[in-house]
Specification:
By secondary structure, this protein is mainly α. The chain has one domain: Ferritin (Up-down Bundle). The protein has seven helices and no strands.
Amino acid sequence: MPAFELAAIGGPWGRRLAPRRAWLDQLPWHEPLPRADDARIVWTQTAFSEYASAAAFAEVASALLAAGAPIDLVAAAGDFVVDEIVHTEAAARVATALGGAVALEVDLTRLVRPPTPRADGAPLLAAAELVVRTSCVGEALTVPMLKLAARLAGSALIEAVLTRIVADEASHGQLGWWFLDWAAPRLDDAARAHLAGVAGDAIRAFAPLLGGSCTDSGLGVVGCDRYDPAFADAVSRAVVDPLAARGIAVRLADLPAFPPAAPVTAPQELAPAGA
């Protein structure tokens, strides 16, 4: 697999992007940061996570078009691609400031999980699957976890980066609820039950992050003793409850077991839940 690398071609395309990334140059990049290997890993992985989120919203925009969704929702999904690309650059620059990004091999052909066979040929359900995974679970969980990482950052630069990303991700998550409210009359009970399973799968994808002991070194790295209970609260408050209010009931059996907080005894770095 190729290494994860970023490049820009500049010219008119750089000028087109410049207004959206201008906030990056206003951050306190002069702040001296320690070389921190755990944080370098976190921020390299975060850069890739944001890149994958850009791909996800590109797929969401295409799916919304195929489903005949409202054009303003389509436009928002397309616009979110730009947000995520700028977040990718921000995370990469933080990794550089911490001593340099780490080598990361990736498969760029598998950035987004495709719709399930059940949704094949059913544009509305395919769009709903992508929206539930990307906005109603991924982005909805990103916001509270990044807020936690910002509070514990111990760095004005990293707190500013995380705070700005949170401001963007909040609207990314809201798109999901607006889409489901628009789609509600078009979804039957079987479709809602299917989407509950999709949401459960997406939540379970976070389970490997839970239950271990891990460092709590700041700089975007959050220890499990703080991360796990905050994540459990976010799953209930930001995902399960809003889905249930829309008739999409995620089964408790579909959720990971959230262990009690454990003492920090061994390193196990966590990304700050980037979307």
